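Appendix C reproduces, verbatim, an entry submitted by the partner laboratory led by Prof. M.T., so that reviewers can inspect both the input and the predicted structure.
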Amino acid sequence: MTYRRWFVVGVAVAVVGALVAAFTIFYGNFSPRGYVEDNFSRASGRDIGSNAIAYTSRKTPSEVSKQITDAWRPADQYVDGSGVYLRYDDDSVVILPLAVGSVILLEKMTTAYPRYHTVVGNSWGWGRGSTVRGGGPGSGK
């Protein structure tokens, strides 16, 4: 194969790679936020100001929680009668019961932690990922 043909093959492979990367960037979900946005119905009437973006599901909070945590493992999880509270690196996912189904609230940790601190108390760590409790012999438990 001549140098020119190798160049054409190289350019074709680069174009295909760029198309695959662009498709992945625009249509893939790379975070719990993206997963919720892709899998649940938007409910702007249930937003809490501009900080907590609401979605809904016809499933119970525990079913929604299982669906989300199967896809994205949270750094911390707190469950009580009021709902399911999931903490990720930068975002929180709070799932509250409705008469039929659930409301799922996506919020940045900077506003979610103060909002839900009275509920989650010390259950949610403060920091990035699951490393917030350290890595000692007891792993913080």
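Residues 130-141 have pLDDT under 50 and may be disordered. Additional entries are available on request from the coordinating office.
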